[in-house]
């Protein structure tokens, strides 16, 4: 089944060339089924790139998905054309009276700034609070995960001695949880961050469970006991050359940066990067969309209740 996205979004042509089934609005409206409604709060500077990465993964599903795109009104993006924002994006004031089956909050390049000093922090907190009443399942990525863990549970982030940068092996702690259905015993995830959250802080919060981690890169996946909020510290959505672009950028600017771990054959930046995370990334987003959104969200979104009141699907299967 397709993803439904706005007519003329730049990602459409890219996805069609990759054989991702993307349906435009005109065709979707002729179908007599209810698509899942997903809101993407895009905090990344290169918004078109991030849109394409996430749509590519969410389009690899038998479910029809309809997207709205959101950006913060309290910060003007500098790396995305204004006409793109005007045409495809909305502010929180424009979406706050709607309800959604799912929401994705991306990472952002502000992790070394204290949360309260981020320009759009107050607005983001308002959106995160709103999501608990108006979104069935929220998927937080990297800094978005750190921000939500801090806002909802008071879990701090810590500076790392050097950037966590590369492709790292991970294992699943609770294998019966459906988020990791079909995963190998060891799977790989890209990370690119200067900060971390720690196991000892998360374990103090009884509402949270650690689903996956890595000996090298630490905590990867955390879920709340209501199955309504996922916190993912890595960037499974990254393209094959995303880390290369970050590495080349920092080298060109004379910034201290190590060669990304487990990325280039023989650790040689002159070679083509080795992709080893794509199958796990597709499974991650497909499992979230199916088991944590589609299988639990009410058909009538007006019946959506607060995440504190509704436990989603009970039992060990989720």
Q: SSE string, helix = H, strand = E?
A: EHEHEHEHEHEHEHEEHEEEHH
Distance between the termini: 23 Å
**CATH T-level fold name:** Rossmann fold
Radius of gyration: 19 Å
What spatial form do the alpha-carbon principal axes imply? globular
Q: CATH homologous superfamily? A: Class I glutamine amidotransferase (GATase) domain
Function: Transfers an acetyl group from acetyl-CoA to L-homoserine, forming acetyl-L-homoserine.
Site (Important for acyl-CoA specificity): 111
Binding site for substrate: 163, 192, 249
Pathway: Amino-acid biosynthesis; L-methionine biosynthesis via de novo pathway; O-acetyl-L-homoserine from L-homoserine: step 1/1
Using brief descriptors, characterize the structure shown:
disordered C terminus, globular, 24% strand, 318 residues, Rossmann fold, single chain
